[in-house]
Design goal:
The protein is an alpha+beta fold. It has five domains: 65 residues, 2-Layer Sandwich (Phenylalanyl-tRNA Synthetase, Chain B, domain 1), CATH 3.30.56; 201 residues, Phenylalanyl-trna Synthetase, Chain B, domain 3 (Phenylalanyl-tRNA Synthetase, Chain B, domain 3); 67 residues, Phenylalanyl-tRNA Synthetase, Chain B, domain 1 (2-Layer Sandwich); 198 residues, BirA Bifunctional Protein, domain 2 (2-Layer Sandwich); 88 residues, 2-Layer Sandwich (Alpha-Beta Plaits), CATH 3.30.70. Helices cover 29% and strands 26% of the residues. The strands form nine sheets. Strands 20-23-24-30-29-28-27 form a seven-stranded mixed sheet, sandwiched between helices. The longest helix is centred in the last third of the chain and has 19 residues. The chain is elongated, with a radius of gyration of 34 Å.
Length: 678
Amino acid sequence: MIVTIEWLKDYVDVDLSSEDLADLLTNAGHESDVIQDGKALDIELTPNRPDCMSHFGVAREIAVLTGKTLRPPQFAVKESGEKAADAISIEIMDKKECPRYACRVVKNVKVNASPEWLVKRLEAAGIRSINNLVDISNYVLLEMGHPLHIFDLQEIAGAKIIVRLARKGETMKTLDGKERKLTQEYLLICDGEKPVALAGIMGGENSEVSDSTTDILIESAYFDPVTVRKGSKALGLSTEASRRFERGTDYEGLITALDRTASLLAEIAGGEISDGIVDAYPQKMKAAPIYFRTEISSATAGVNFEASFIESTFAGLGISSTKTDDGYNCVPPTFRPDLEREIDLTEELARIYGFSRIKSDFTYGGYLTDVTWDTADYLRELRQFFVGLGFNEVSTNSLIRKSEATHFTESDAVKLQNPISRDMAFLRTSLFPGLLKAVNYNLKRGENDLSLFEHGVVFTGDRDSKTGCEEKEQFAGVICGNRILKQWKRGGESVDFYTVKGFAGAVARFLRIEDFGVSFKERRQLFKPGQVLVNVDGESLVEFGRFSSDTLASYDIENPVYGFFLFLDKIGREISRELIHQPPSKHPGISRDLSFVLQQEHPVAELEEVIRENGTDLLARLLLYDLYEGNQIEEDQKSVTFSLFFRDRMRTLKDEEVDKIVAQIISETSKRFGAKLR
């Protein structure tokens, strides 16, 4: 949610820099980023804090955190004398889904463009100006956090509003021009003849205001959060209104929002406010009281809260409190549906006090009686290993869209019964969708050199299990950009296939897996043809490769990106649990360089494999140090040069022994590939 700092100053004195203000809110639980050159904040609110989905709500947080005075919006409602009840009546048929519905009537409005100050405030908050009537309702939404809807009064048949659940097979066309097929779980706002709005989500096309509108009806209501959420998700229709209603709006503050809207309509659109509010409120709602014990709260939080701090904080948060012998009788404000228990009030005190100010006072003691191998120990070491290579660990969302669920696996994906949105309707089958989204996010912000990894759980369908899905741990990562930055004595070096191959060998050595092989294969399941495999006895443990351009395009990535994937179940079986120290050999080794000329079609990896097979146990090291493809050899051929190092740790080798091995290598490479010594 975007809040502009100048707008916040209407309600509280803000004397902090934009960066300090963002830090203040972040430390209080509202993650904030500075945007628009320091003129606004982008706040990531948690779902339990609908009270902060407005400028006034954020200002209230700033006031209690800084000790400043909070100034509510000042306005007056001047009524014309004509009774609103004569123009409209309300009937609530489904009271559980709509406990309260109130409205005002404003007549003789003039639909025009909004004044410049109003347009600027809306646009700074990310909302496009439409006309003065619509803009005023959006302004109050952003100011006070309560959604409102404005109907053309002349289009309300029978001068009556009926709130009811939809009937099976009923349809209506919403403001976005789409015909919506409804079921009995949707709540509707109807007039005497037809539906005119989807309650809490979007208005209907048949009652929207137009340039010819003169008389309007302002709706301000409280809708059941679960009902709105179900309707919004079933339709795949999320709006500014639904996002607030489904989190819980203020059932008492809706009257203030209604009056605020009416006053602005009179001021900006020249409207005449009819006398009185038509308020259908069948059964008054009340916030449940909470008994708060000071000693218990202080022990839970780890800090002794003083009475003056408790009382000032409660007052600033709008919590009504009465002192008792050992605490307070408290009633939370109606705009805080998340405050239900004593522990909730303790959390509020700790949050305002500052979690960073609470000192840790734990002392641990005990005796080590046994040492048991933990199969997950190597995962912690594995994380640290990749951090040492320059990687950053990330944690991405486990909910993805359907198309992403089939990108990297052929297994069945698991669909959620009540998804938050279409983009979060399936459980992830791989870590790569989240990692590639992280790459996209960073690339768009100028961070081009990335090395990211994640360890998490992935899910695949399993009809034989009780839950219908199988969970597996996965360890994966992505690499792109420059491996070495451009410097004054050397040029930059981009990540390429050989960088990836180097990582593959490093992983194998770190895992202390004996007799591993690093090979080049062509397989299309994860990466484009051409990937590095670390394997033991023909079984893959680690796969590295480059993502295909089609895969990257689906994540809006143009830069080359490499990825890796670890088979944790196989690694857990193969990893050595013992650290064995081997001192340097006392005996010298013998080096040989071999330069082969062979056809281009033969991969170098296959040539390496033959050399290792015939090099015997004495071949301690094999390195490729030159590859030539030029005009000094035939066009369809290439020259490959290897450095071979032979050693026996128990004795000194003789040249004759090594010569025999080298001759066998030359013979086999000639038979298999037609290779010739250059």
